Each structure stands twice: as structure tokens, then as C-alpha cells.
Amino acid sequence: MAYLNLLPWRDAQKKQQQARFMTTITAACVSSFLLVFGVSAVYSSMIEGQDGRNNYLQGEIAILDQRITEIKQLDEKKKNLQKRMELIAQLQSSRNLGTQIMDEIAKVTPAGVYLTNLEKKGPSLLLVGKSESNNRLSNMIRSVETSELLSNPLLEFIEAAKDETQLLSDFKMHLMVKSYDTVHGASNQPKPAAAGGTK
User: Fold this and answer.
1) Paired strand residues for 172
2) Residue-number span of the structural domain to which 167 is assigned
3) Where are the alpha helices (DSSP H) in the chain?
4) Which of 102, 137, 139, 197 has the fewest CB atoms lying closer than 10 Å?
5) What is the pTM of this model?
């Protein structure tokens, strides 16, 4: 006689398949959660580390900005001190300039030329006087052109005496005073040897 299985074996098999499916789904969910949690933890750690580095860099940048500001302030103070020192040096160098100008004018004024008035306005000089001849004024102009302190001689006018008994002519001449640095820089440089000199 043939054996017949009357138990609901299809339902039992179906329940087993459902149990396996649920187990697989649960394992997949747990694995996905652990994976996402791990990745999130890694990225969170990386972000925290980067934030820490950013905060450190911002702190160092703030310190450098403060130092740059201090350096700029020091540079401004240095420039102000340099300007003061240059002004003091100019005042000291021009302290004896009036005496030097008078001495140089006496050197460039030849015999036969007489000065009656001298005016100084800034670097310009105005000479008013009398001359025995035009040649003497020409000699004076050449002396000014070779002077280390005076330059740019300009003869404004020369007027012969109206009275024949007077031999002197009136004249007016403009000169320029060279700057102190130019004068002393030129005087400190070695002069070229005269042509035809001995070796």
C-alpha cells in the first residue's frame, strides 16, 4: 500500500522560506546600518580633525595679522624718524650756507665789478651792481658757471651810464644756489687730471 503524507508540508516549507528571507533581510539591514554608522563615524572624525586644523590656522593667521599690523606701525615710525633725521641733516648742512654763499660771490666777482645789493629768495640770488666793462661781467659769468656752489647765471640787463663822466654801467644778474648734497657730492669726487700733465 502506498504511503500518503497528509501533513501541511507546503505551509511549513513556506514558513521556512519566509523565516530565511526575514533573517536575510535583518542581516542586510544590520550590516547596512553598521556600514553607514562606520562611514559616518570616519567622516565625522575627519571633519572634527579638519575643523581643529582650521581653528589652529585661523588662530595663527590672527597672530600673523597682528604682527603685520605691528610691522606696518614700526615702518611708519621708521619713515617718520628718517624724515626727521633728513630734516635735521639739511638744517645742519645749511647752517653755514650763508657764509659760503658770500665767500663764493667774493671769489667769482672780478676786479672792476662792484655789488650794491644782494637778495636771496630760496635757491635764487639777485645781484645788483656796477661794472667798469662788459668783459668784466663776462668773466664773472664764466666764473659762476665753473663754481661748485653757484649756477645758472642770467644777466637781466646792463645799462651804460647816461652821464659821460661816469664810467660804470648798472647791471642786474640772477644766480641759482646749488643744493648742499650736489655741492658736497661733487666736491668729494676725484677731479680729472689736467690735460698734458705728467704721468
Assistant:
1) 128, 157
2) 97-187
3) 9-93, 97-108, 134-145, 180-188
4) 197
5) 0.45
